[in-house]
Amino acid sequence: MAKHSEPTAPVAKPPAKRRKTNIKGKDINQAEQDLSPFPFLKLPPEIRNMIYKLVLVSKRGMHFQRAYSTVEKGRCLIKRRQMHIAGKGNAKDEINAKLLRACKQIRNEATVLLYSCNRFQFDDAGMLPQFFVQYATHVRDIRVITLYIKHITSDACEKAFSALVHADQLESLELLYDLYPVSQYGGSGKEALRASAEEFFGVARFWIEAEGIRRGNKRAALKVLTLPNDLEKPRECHYCKGKFIRWATKRTEDEHKVFWAMLRKYLR
């Protein structure tokens, strides 16, 4: 007689796990996903660069001046027009350098844009060499510099031009100073212009000649230079304990042409 196997009882399925919810009824698992890190580095390089520029590039540029503090005397501070770069402010284009601390890859990618896309304004010629020493590895990335010169014949100014030799990718050097004050040369004729051009060349000669050698053109530095009269509008220069100076030239366009002509003679 054939044996009949006993019917197997259906295996009971374990009850479905209930999703944990918070007091407001939100799915906690979904909330944990929302808190997971955004895969920023998986974005295309072009998109990452756009984000870097939004965070690190300012239309106003960055100002550098001495710290007038007994605690940090002589320390090089990165300053905006009203605040320290790391300070809190409401400026729409405030630079947020904290992004550089995210990770090594972001720091390497973004640092180049920080230096190459911003205008660096030094309100004291003596600060430029100090900054170049402190951030030597990034100097070659700088493209635009504005330099306030109080006395063209000062040692600080000569050292600044010597330091500029290391900024071998520089595209624009804006100089803010009175090229040839009448009080110094006793007049505004060609003799004063000649003396001013000779004085300027003597101070900036090391940088001018280095630019000529690097670019294969003795007058290459003249294409990089921008004088106050050539600016579309005067610059505001922040220096010396918060004082503001609006730079405007008192010289005519013809006088500037004469100055440039005199300067070119030294570059034959």
Automatic annotation (TrEMBL):
Q: Which PANTHER family match?
A: F-BOX DOMAIN-CONTAINING PROTEIN (PTHR42085)
Entry-linked InterPro entries = AN11006-like (IPR038883), DUF7730 (IPR056632)
Occurrences of domain DUF7730 (ranges)? 32-144
Region span, Disordered: 1-28
Q: Name one Pfam family in it.
A: DUF7730
This one is known as DUF7730 domain-containing protein
